[in-house]
C-alpha cells in the first residue's frame, strides 16, 4: 500500500501522510498521526479541502492533465514540496528529461561510431550528436543547480528543432510522443525556474 509523507514547514516537523491502494482507491490522509479523512478516487480527482486544527486549509487532489500528473497538495494556496505543482519538483523533472536526452545521445552516438552501426549512422548519430548530448547535460545542470530558466528554454528549443529536422528528413516520426512528454517536462521546468528566481529576488529585496 503506497505511503507518502509531505511536510508543511521547512523544518520538516509538521507533516501529513497519504496512503492509498491501487488506482488511488482507499485514499486516506493523516495529519500528525491522526486521520483527517478519506477520499474516493472521484473525490480525489475533483479535489477536496481539509481544515487543519489551526485553521489552515489543505487542498488535496489528483491532477491528471497532460504533462503534469500526480498528487497536488496546496497549503493555503501554496504547493507543498514533492508534489506535482511544486516548482522545485518541476525543475527536477526538467533536469531528469534533459539527462534522459543527453544519455540517449551519448550512448547511441558511441554505439554508432564504435560499431559501426549503419542504421544509427543513417539517423545521423556520430560526433555531432555526441556533442549535442554533452550540451543537453550542461543545460540541464545550469537549469537545476543555477535555476536558470534560459537553459531549459534552450534545451526545449533544441529538442523541437531536432524533432522538426528528423521529421523533415523522412526518417520516421522519431518518437513524437516521447518527445512531447520530455518537452512538457522541460517547459514546466523553465517556467518554474523563472518563478523561483523571481521569488528569490523579491525575498532578497525585502
Automatic annotation (TrEMBL):
It comes from the Bacteria. The chain crosses the membrane at residues 119-141, 148-167, 173-190. Keywords: Membrane, Transmembrane, Transmembrane helix. This is DoxX family protein. It comes from Hymenobacter bucti.
Amino acid at each position: 500500500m503506497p505511503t507518502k509523507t509531505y511536510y508543511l514547514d521547512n523544518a520538516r516537523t509538521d507533516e501529513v501522510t497519504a496512503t492509498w491502494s491501487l488506482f488511488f482507491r482507499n485514499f486516506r490522509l493523516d495529519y500528525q498521526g491522526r486521520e483527517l479523512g478519506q477520499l474516493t478516487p472521484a473525490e480525489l480527482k475533483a479535489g477536496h479541502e481539509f481544515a487543519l486544527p489551526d485553521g489552515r486549509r489543505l487542498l488535496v487532489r489528483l491532477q491528471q492533465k497532460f504533462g503534469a500528473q500526480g498528487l497536488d497538495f496546496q497549503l493555503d494556496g501554496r504547493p507543498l514540496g514533492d508534489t506535482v505543482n511544486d516548482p522545485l519538483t518541476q525543475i527536477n523533472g526538467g533536469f531528469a528529461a534533459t539527462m534522459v536526452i543527453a544519455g540517449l545521445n551519448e550512448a547511441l552516438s558511441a554505439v554508432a561510431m564504435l560499431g559501426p552501426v549503419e542504421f544509427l549512422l543513417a539517423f545521423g548519430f556520430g560526433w555531432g550528436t555526441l556533442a549535442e548530448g554533452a550540451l543537453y547535460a550542461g543545460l540541464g545542470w545550469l537549469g537545476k543547480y543555477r535555476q536558470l530558466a534560459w537553459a531549459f528554454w534552450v534545451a526545449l528549443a533544441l529538442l523541437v528543432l531536432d524533432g522538426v529536422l528528423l521529421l523533415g528528413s523522412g526518417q520516421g516520426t522519431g518518437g513524437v510522443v516521447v518527445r512531447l512528454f520530455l518537452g512538457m517536462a522541460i517547459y514546466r521546468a523553465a517556467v518554474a525556474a523563472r518563478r523561483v528566481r523571481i521569488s528569490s529576488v523579491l525575498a532578497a529585496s525585502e
